[in-house]
Amino acid sequence: YQRRVHGHNHPLLNRAVEEQLQKMAHVMFGGITHRPAVELAQRLVSITPDPLQWVFFCDSGSVAVEVAMKMALQYQHARGDSARKRFITLKNGYHGDTWHAMSVCDPQRGMHQLFQGQLPQQLFAEEPRSRMGEEWDPNDPMYSALIPQRR
C-alpha cells in the first residue's frame, strides 16, 4: 500500500523485500520482539531525557495513533478521572483508519464521512495559520482559543 508512490512491482523494492525475508520475516510486536527492535529501543532510550525510558513499537501509523489514544484514556482512568474521554484535534487532519484514529480525522472534509455519527465524537479546532518552517504567530486565533492566556 505505502509503496504505490514508487510504482507497483518495482524491481528495486522487490529485491529489498527478498533480501529482508532472507534475514527475518515480518514480526508483529504483539508481545514478541527481536534483536533489531531491542537495539533500536536501547538507542532511542539513550538519547532521550531520563523520564522517557519506555519504547512502544507499532506496525503502522494508524495503530500508533490508536494505541496513544488508548494510553491517554488509561492514564485518565488511573488518575480517577474516567469521565475524560474526548480528544481535541485540528480540522483538516488525517490520522489513520482504525476506529479511534478515524474519530480524530476531519469529520467534514476527511475520507471517513461515511462513519459520522458512529465514531466517538471529538473536539476539532481550526488549523493554525502558521505553517511549517514559518515564524510562530502568537496572535493566531487557533492558539488563543486553545491556550489560556498567562499574565
Question: In one word, what is the shape?
Answer: extended
Taking all residues together, what is the mean pLDDT? 84
First and last CA, distance: 49 Å
| Strand order in the sheet with the most strands | 1-2
Query: Given the structure, what is the number of helices?
Result: 5
Question: What is the helix fraction of residues, given as a range?
Answer: 25-40%
For the CA atoms, what is the radius of gyration?
Answer: 20 Å
The ordered string of helix (H) and strand (E) elements is: HHHEHEH
Kindly name the structural category. Answer: mainly alpha
Provide the β-strand percentage band. under 5%
Count all strands and give the number: 2
Task: Characterise the protein shown here.
It is a single chain. The chain has 151 residues and is mostly helical. Helices cover 36% and strands 4% of the residues. It contains 5 helices and 2 strands. The chain has helices at residues 11-23, 35-46, 61-78, 99-103, 141-146, and strands at residues 88-90, 123-125. Strands 1-2 form a two-stranded parallel sheet. The longest helix has 18 residues, at 61-78. The radius of gyration is 20 Å and the shape is extended. The chain starts with 10 loop residues before the first helix and ends in a 5-residue tail after the last helix. The model has no long low-confidence stretch (mean pLDDT 84).
